[in-house]
Design brief:
Layout lengths: L1 H12 L6 H36 L5 E4 L14 E2 L25 E2 L9 E7 L2 E7 L12 H12 L4 H14 L3 H16 L5 H13 L4 E6 L2 E7 L4 E2 L3 E4 L2 E6 L9 E4 L25 E5 L10 E5 H7 L4 E2 L1 H5 L5 H11 L7 H14 L6 H4 L8 H6 L5 H16 L2 E7 L2 E7 L9 E4 L2 E6 L3 E2 L16 E4 L3
Parallel strand pairs: 2-19, 3-5
Antiparallel strand pairs: 1-11, 4-5, 6-7, 6-11, 7-10, 8-14, 9-10, 12-13, 15-16, 15-20, 16-18, 17-18
């Protein structure tokens, strides 16, 4: 509709032969026209919400939850070539220098009416403000169909546009992906009610997301409300349901064991058609809370000092486990780019093969290995910054970091190599190289590079995977 308004405005101003008086009349008429159209649109949306509220009174249907197994179950110890010993590698000092970083960034708004106030939200170290009106606090008396229906009907009579527009503005300013925006809406709603995970906060989060076309809905589990989200990527180790040919992930309920029943409605809100994406091609613009420390092991007889934005680490910690491409194609932080600049100095005068060999040696030896089950008690895939923050990492974490380094420093195409319970990397060199293990995809040849096979050179494969045909996960170019 906004595009149509713009076309009308363009046509009005493309006429050159009219007086100033005529221009004023045209502008007045156009303003009146657009206001009428917006009012009609608001009435249409209000009516849509009223009708949907009536639909919510119908009995919700029960669905059994299921979980997809984690992507990776790593061995407790890494594999080393028999001739290579890592026991003599010097350890970094245990002291860690911590810098609390810059002044917290803020994104603030001003009240636009006498009854409006402003609430402050701490979004991973960044202070943002949202408009607040008392009628935003839609009460939800219980968790029954009637309770949710009545709340939806009351919400339809409230003008949430100031709040919704502010949230969308913050999304643009903070460079948030769909997951980050959902977290922002949740934090905004929790500030409105001054409580977390209450029936009212679950309800209003779903209501606001639906008004913004996001495909989420409300479910009921054990007499409490839960938030369900339709997500584009495959999600792992988190409860889900299949409903009306769609998969919905139950958010905030990672501790659910086994299969339980979730009740929900089978028809989505009409405008809620956008499936959320976990993809992070660009990282959120968060205030910096910088910590500096050393990588666990010496490399090239040097202690490598790295910086980490703890606010970004906290953001990553909220993401459920998803497809490897999300991690492998993620944007890079200023801290990771600083590390790549340090490594670039070691690559001077080397060709692609020699540089890739040196980077492979770096990822193999600068870090300390431990399986996710040992470190966290569950499987977890790292974004590159998490490699610098946590004391240990495992095969998929190393492969992902190596792919990022090759792509940034050498500009070569890369892929993840998915063996049973093991992940390695592969590089597409611009000229033919001799190597034991290579894979052909289309017109490209990818050469195996395994950052977890300690001491292995480019093309060398762990004995148990020789001759196997793994899945090649091509990453973005």
């Amino acid at each position: 509709m906004r595009l149509w308004f713009g076309i009308v405005l363009l046509l009005l101003f493309s006429c050159r032969d009219y007086s100033i008086y005529g221009q004023e009349n045209l502008l007045d008429e156009f303003t009146t026209f657009t206001q009428q159209q917006l009012q009609e649109y608001d009435q249409t949306v209000r009516q849509m919400n009223k009708e949907f509220a009536l639909y919510l009174k119908q009995a919700w249907q029960p669905f059994n939850t299921h979980r997809l197994e984690p992507l990776q179950k790593d061995p407790d110890i890494p594999t080393s070539k028999p001739s290579v010993s890592t026991s003599a590698i010097a350890k970094a000092p245990t002291n860690v220098e911590t810098i609390l970083g810059e002044e917290v960034q803020s994104i603030r708004i001003k009240p636009t009416s006498p009854t409006m106030t402003v609430k402050e939200i701490n979004y991973f170290g960044t202070q943002v403000s949202i408009p607040y009106l008392p009628n935003y606090r839609i009460q939800v008396k219980g968790t029954s169909e009637n309770d949710v229906s009545n709340a939806w009907s009351r919400a339809a009579d409230v003008d949430f546009n100031p709040l919704l527009k502010t949230l969308q503005s913050h999304k643009r300013q903070l460079n948030l992906n769909d997951w980050g925006f959902l977290l922002l809406v949740q934090k905004a709603v929790e500030s409105i009610y001054n409580e977390q995970q209450s029936p009212a906060s679950i309800f209003l989060t779903a209501y606001c997301m639906n008004q913004l076309s996001q495909s989420v809905r409300i479910g009921r589990m054990n007499d409490k409300l839960v938030l369900l989200a339709e997500i584009q990527e495959t999600m792992y180790d988190i409860p889900q349901i299949n409903c009306d040919g769609k998969t919905y992930t139950i958010l905030g309920e990672n501790a659910i064991g086994g299969s339980i029943r979730i009740a929900t409605y089978t028809k989505s809100f009409p405008n809620a058609t956008h499936r959320l994406s976990m993809a992070l091609p660009q990282l959120p613009l968060l205030s910096e809370n910088i910590q500096t420390q050393y990588l666990p092991n010496r490399w090239q007889d040097t202690l490598i000092q790295v910086a980490i934005n703890k606010n970004l680490i906290d953001f990553y910690a909220t993401l459920p486990q998803t497809e490897f491409t999300v991690y492998g194609n993620a944007g890079l932080s200023p801290q990771i780019r600083t590390l790549t600049n340090k490594l670039k100095a070691y690559l001077q005068g080397k060709d692609d093969y020699e540089a890739a060999t040196l980077l492979l040696d770096f990822v193999q030896n600068a870090f300390e290995y431990q399986s996710d089950r040992q470190q966290f008690g569950h499987e977890k895939v790292f974004f590159p910054d998490e490699m610098l923050y946590y004391p240990y990492n495992d095969c998929e974490d190393r492969a992902i970091l190596y792919c990022h380094l090759i792509r940034v420093l050498l500009g070569l195409n890369v892929a993840l190599v998915n063996y049973p319970n093991h992940i390695a990397a592969a590089v597409c060199f611009p000229s033919q190289v001799k190597a034991e293990t290579q894979y052909r995809r289309g017109n490209e040849t990818y050469t195996l590079c395994d950052p977890t096979y300690l001491g292995a050179s480019i093309g060398e494969c762990m004995p148990q995977f020789i001759g196997k045909s793994p899945k090649l996960i091509l990453l973005s170019k």
